[in-house]
Amino acid sequence: MHARKILQSAAVLALSAALTLPAGPAQAAAGPNTDFNGDGYNDLAVGSPSYPGYPGTKNSGLVAVLFGGPDGLTYNRHIIRPAPGCTAGGLPCEAWGVNLSAADVDADGRTDLISRGHYDLQVDSWTSQGTATIERRVYGHRTAPWRLMSGQFDDQPGTDIVGPTRGGYWFSVGGWYNRSANLLFTDFADDSYLTKETSAASGDLDGDGKLEIAVVAGRHSGAGELGPHLWLIDDPHRPQVQLTTLGSPSTCTSPPSYGQGCPKADSEVAMGNVNGDGHDDLVMLTPSTASLQVWYGRATGPSSAPGYTVDLSSLATSAELGPGLAVGDVNGDGWAEIVIGASKATVSGHSEAGAVMVIPGSATGPVIKRAQLVTQDGIGPVGGTALADPIAEQSKPGDRFGQAITITDLTGDGKGEVIVGAPAKNGGSGMLAVLFGSATGVLTSTAQAIHPSRYGLNSTQAYFGGVLLK
User: Fold this and answer.
1) When you count CB atoms within 10 A of the terminal residue's CB, does the N or C end of the chain come out lower?
2) pLDDT tens per residue across span 54-65
3) Which residues of 1-10 are buried (b: 16+ CB within 10 A; e: fewer)?
């Protein structure tokens, strides 16, 4: 028999008005191209920065590339890990897989994997001849992009590898532009001294073909008020980087009100096309206020205020929410779903077993009343009883199901799979759950439960599923 399911208050139905779903979204958003081996199916990269190294080495970490197919993740995999004796700047290589990104770095028409450790970064490329590391960069621990992002960020040809970088007491944005060998950071236009970067995401909000960066960070000094801010950065390569403020302490009310951005130190951001208009939208989850906010993209850039705000406290407590957050089209209708993790949620009496909520998108934004609640014990409507249990596992205390989430179309059917990490499961070895996309949302008849032992990874220090490529 199945364990008792989470029951959520029916009051969630009052969180949003009834929304109609007009046809004709401008653009689907099933997820990025992560087909590394060129077989027509997207693949998944999983970072395991705490994985033990070879005998006599530190916990040097690794990256497992798991290949997709018509039935989901296959048994085929490629493991990237430091070789014995690997050093970076005179220090042992460690924490490989702490951050991941993907882009066509060498302009050969095929997606490459970018992964970093504490002191180094490398780009791996797949060709018909096999896999090769085409770039390797060594840097100091305090000059590494904390969140890897890759793609076209400036107006010059070539792939950029950039991200927010956290130093001892400072924060900046920069990296390698257009395959340059030089690491470049530019100053902020208002001479701000920023610190405590907590989350970042990239996407094309204005539809100009270049990516923007959204980042949650604290302002320590400089022009403006102190405290957590949500900033939008357009072209971080430009001298004197411009910061567009979308939220700050002065825009916060309690509880968060419609039309006001309210970033906190625990806010998480992601991007995707929620309303199907061809522009990415900026989504922010703030666990401490149990709120979800969306800034809609448009040709002139997003409005300074969110176009959608909702109180999530009827779905989960603030202590349960986060940090998992992903945006992508699960049902193939052209409107991206928002998937929220509640990794510390109590499920079937088990503390911190974890759950995720899949919130459909529409032409008018998220549709909270049609959300699905997913645990290892079942799937069903929020506020109701689970109707099916496709995951061949049960919730256990401390699993942290929903700690990390990504949405990728592994099967090639135009519908994104929701891939959920439970990194603390089975004593820390971890697990992935692949929830298949379907026309009605997450498929309730079948799912994949992926254990690292399937790929020869048997350490209880793997925390498999804690870092996922987005």
Assistant:
1) N
2) 876 777 999 999
3) eebebbebee
